[in-house]
Amino acid sequence: MQQSVTARGPIGARARHSRSPAIWLLLPTLVSMVGLVVYPLARGFYTSLTTSFFLSNQAVFAGFKNYAILLHNPVFWMVVWHGLVWTAGVVLGQLIFGFVGALILNQPIWGQAIFQSVTFIPWIMPGVAAGLLWSLMYDPTFGLVGNLQHFWGFSSIAYLSNVHTSMAAVVVAAIWKGTPFTILMMLAGLQTVDTAVTEAARIDGASWFKVIRHAVIPQVAPVVRTTALFITVWTFNYFDMIYVMTNGGPVNSTQIFPTYVYQLAFGQLDYGLGTAAGILSLVVVGIIAALFIFELARQGALD
Amino acid sequence: MIPRGIKISTGVLAAAGLPALLLASSASTLAASQPHHQVVLRVWDMNQANTPIGKEEHKYIAEFEKAHPGVTVKLTIIPYADYFHDLTVAVKAGKAPDIATVDEIWTPAFAASKAIVPLSSLMKRYHLNSANYFKPAWQTTLYHGQSYGIPWSFDVWEQLYWNKTMFAKAHIAGPPKTWPQMLADAKKLTHAPNQYGIAVIGDKGEDTVVVMDSLIYSNGGSIEKNGKVTFDSSKVKRALTFYKDLSKYAPPGAASATESTSIGLFSSGKVAMAFDGSWQQATLQSQAPHLNWGIAVPPAPTGKKFHGTLGGWNLVVFKQSKHYGLDMQYIKWMTKPNVEVKVASLIPANKKAGIEFVKKDRRQPSIILNTLNNGYPRPISPNYLTISTIQQNAMSEIWTGTPVGRAVAQAATEMKHQ
């Protein structure tokens, strides 16, 4: 008994002592979180509730007026739609090309390391540089795309000037830029695939497509899901390429949340409205992410 | 991809203000570390393209410091692309510099927000005379009858660049003088897809707005007059209809064509004519040394006179400065003709320096001086940036097939609601 009391005493004291350093160790993270995430968000939300212009020295509290203005503006709904189209297009494209690219680069081919390295160039290129590059490629007079069309006997199309083609043009450019990341993730996934399963499928007479469909994809599915979630959020919030290539035009046909927020806040100096649009974009991307996570949980992928 | 949008969308001011705050706080620390008698003058300037402004500026700053013992000038040069954003954030954060170069189109917004001080009385005290500057450049400093800046450098966005070889081959004697002549010449010079009559600028940017304004001004129209929106007038419709007609003889892609697209097409011999400012002469001389080109005053409607759109930079004093007198001495120093001719990013706004600069550095100086003296500023309004965005959208609509009348009516309605 005495022994046990004696034994409990030091342990209890150690536990009490150890709790306090744990709090101190957590404090820098907590302070960073509050300073870098909570405060800017709270401040941003407050700004969105004010009529805050560069031109007026005082930000006047206006309730949800900015939100009402946005929700009654057809351009805002156009931005929501474009944001969804842009995100869906880029994510789907990156997943498809990323998976195919990873399958190719996973083969024991000559110069595999060189091909892998070259493939990643678009991903490490700054978004502004990639945007300029693609703008030049799409140039109907000098660009590669226009020249190829001439070569094949077609008249060149100014893809970035046409409201019907501009979104597709920027989506293609963004797929090119982001696909290497997907390849990287998929390659990592493919390297964990149990070859015994794929070999067994082959021996059983499964075609190449069936091996991929029934033996490979189920094994890399967790990587695909995680990658899809990442690139969905990143793409929705991506700014550089569209800003450089079209600045949201023509006629708002490529206007997405980040370019819209920038235009309102720094183009028109309407900080209140710009921040309200930013908060709404956060809500939209939050809903997308929540749906994603909910679906993953439903499939048991988060267990 | 870098999730940059997150940064913008969450707490736009708080996030964007951070670098400016850090910059400003480090500047305060520096100032605090100076001896008590030392005054630090904080000056911001921007750098456009490859012009190495800072090098010359530092030279004259050193001379200024020598002539003003106890004064240290801290010059911060910011790339043009970031400059407006950094300035507005610094003003909002209460960390504006003492003096800065400000684009003429921003001056009314800074004046209306009371971020900068009126200089009229200070100018008298420091013997700075408005008559020494080109009148159109001077007009860009005025807001509600007060001068809020000293014009430093300026230019007109439009001279007509024309390819002499192409004109000769088409048996056209010289550059067009009227709009009907221009349409006829452009048609004659177009042999698509290898050669086009003209390059138009039509992207969603300020470079499009200045061309629109120039055509509107030359047709006797305006964007707004005495505070009243006039963008839906018949003169505006006629001007923009002319631009749309002209685009038939331009390479495809007007809605995304920028100023650099336009001069690129001209320098590569793809188009026979292009509108641009005199700063592009250096580009043509370096990139297309064998191109046989000239400049002309751009055409106007029959019986009317051409008016280009002005662009340029003013030196302003921020309200937060603690030493307006010293600020004015600095401005006076940097706007001396012999200094301005070396440090200005465009044509010096001081008449003496400007004329000397144009005669020495530019081809066909008389054409340039003609367009400079007849240039008009863009609307002098604190809401200019919104007006400009509306104009850009209107032009985009026109390129994509919306009838001109409907596009300008819609734009005018939006402008009236500002």
Please give a structural write-up:
The complex is a heterodimer of chains A (303) and B (418). Chain A has 303 residues and is an all-alpha fold. Chain A folds into 2 domains: 47 residues; 230 residues, MetI-like (MetI-like fold, Orthogonal Bundle), CATH 1.10.3720.10. Helix content of chain A is 75%, strand content 1%. Chain A has 13 helices and 2 strands, in the order αββαααααααααααα. A two-stranded antiparallel ribbon of chain A has the order 1-2. The N terminus of chain A is likely disordered. With 418 residues, chain B is of the alpha+beta class. In chain B, strands 2-1-3-13-6-14 form a 6-stranded mixed beta sheet. In chain B, strands 8-11-7-12 form a 4-stranded mixed beta sheet. Chain B is 48% helix and 16% strand. Chain B folds into 2 domains: 216 residues, D-Maltodextrin-Binding Protein, domain 2, CATH 3.40.190.10; 184 residues, 3-Layer(aba) Sandwich (D-Maltodextrin-Binding Protein, domain 2). The N terminus of chain B is likely disordered. In chain B, a hairpin with a 2-residue loop joins β4 and β5. Classes of the chains: A mainly alpha (303), B alpha+beta (418). The interface between A and B is large, with 66 and 52 residues.
CATH-derived architecture of the largest domain in chain B: 3-Layer(aba) Sandwich
Class based on secondary structure composition and strand pairing of chain B = alpha+beta
- Helix percent band of chain A: over 70%
Strand composition percent of chain A:
under 5%
Low-confidence stretches of chain A: 1-9
Provide the low-confidence segments of chain B as ranges.
1-36
- Domain count of chain B: the total is 2
Q: What shape does the CA trace of chain B take?
A: globular
**Sequence of secondary-structure elements of chain A:** HEEHHHHHHHHHHHH
Q: Termini separation of chain A (Å)?
A: 43 Å
Gyration radius of chain A, in Å: 26 Å
Which class best fits the helix and strand makeup of chain A?
mainly alpha
Distance between the termini of chain B: 37 Å
What is the quaternary state of this protein?
A: heterodimer
Biggest sheet descriptor of chain A: 2 strands, antiparallel
Give the beta-strand count of chain A.
2
Estimate nothing, just give the exact number of structural domains of chain A. Answer: 2
Provide the CATH topology of the largest domain in chain A: MetI-like fold
CATH superfamily heading of the largest domain in chain B: Periplasmic binding protein-like II
The major beta sheet of chain B can be summarized as: 6 strands, mixed
